Amino acid sequence: MTVGFAICGSFCxxxxxxxxxxxxKSAGYxxxxxxxxxxxxxxxxxxVAREFxxxxxxxxxxxxxxxxxxxxxIGPKKLLDALIIAPCTGNTLAKLACGITDSSxxxxxxxHLRNERPLILAVSTxxxxxxxxxxxxxxxATRHIYFVPYGQDDPVSKTKSLVSDMTLILPTLESALSGKxxxxxxxx
Length: 188
Description:
single chain, seven-stranded mixed sheet, 8 helices
């Protein structure tokens, strides 16, 4: 079974991704890595982009897709059984909710959803309980979209921020493949 794993620019959560890729690999999934252009090329205080891309590609054993034209064949060729976006930024949530396809990740999602297969979102956004709350609501009610359980990561200092529990990516994937949503919100 082949799973796409798309990574958006919530750089502070990147350190959690390699362990989850390893978990998926150990569970027997073939993983096709997909990066937003920002995640693929931007060095930040959290790390050097090229090093992170190389880590992901090494774990997956596959070269990354990081362009719109690279992501477009995902739909017509039915390349994926499921697609995971982790971390899924507020920007990507908004684009998905409004049908905007202007990045490699949103193109991958659009192309994949045309095949009516699961799209799993692991949110990481500072405005999940703000302007993006409506987008989370819209996507929660959309067929074939599933959320990795999420909660507030810092309710005192970042009152609108939501982050998925990345350790629940594999169980969410397996549940989504059966057409079921895990309890999407966590109490912290």
